[in-house]
Amino acid sequence: MSEPPVSVMVVDDHPMWRDGVARDLAERGFEVLATASDAASALRIARTVKPDVVLMDLNLGDTSGVTATLQITQEIPGTRVLVLSASGEHSDVLEAVKAGASGYLVKSASASELVDAVQRTAAGDAVFTAGLAGLVLGEYRRMAITPDSDAQAPQLTDRETEVLRLVAKGMTARQIAKKLVISHRTVENHVQSTLRKLQLHNRVELARYAIEHGLDQEA
Q1: What domains sit in the chain, N to C, each tagged with a CATH number?
Q2: C-alpha distance across the termini of the chain, in Å
Q3: Which one of 62, 69, 75, 157 is most buried, by most CB atoms within 10 A?
């Protein structure tokens, strides 16, 4: 039995761009549930249709796409946000990620890059245009502070720690499975278990935790 198609919602204030992206994704097998032109309608519609992935522009007029991203990720836990923006400004990227975006793609990306990014975002990966992942991880490292020595650290198994280290290096679940010679599902189980133990929400937060604790460095 085949898996259901990834469901998508496209948010952009330019009708031609919005409709073009929606059409391209539909032609490539995605289920485009809705489109929206501003932050308020994006949140309202997303609450109703609950897509797997929201493709979010940042320039939405009165209310920023960053605000819409924060609202959607907080109110609809099963929906992930992939920013698709004309801006590659570092401040825009970091604001979007801190608001809960799972990834950030610039609009100069090719159709194949967009398709891959949406699929990977739906699968739970953190996806960035080349060069931006390093920016995000570098910012998290800069922000890192010495953990409170009095705090009780969550107990992770050796395998969970190993998977966490590879997540911090930006590897996908399939790449991790191949490297550790375990199944893709087993990797996902370890990731979900680690998220629960650390009380985190997604792989971006997981990578930040790993970097703050030095787990992105080789043992």
Answers
A1: 7-144 (3.40.50.2300), 158-213 (1.10.10.10)
A2: 42
A3: 69
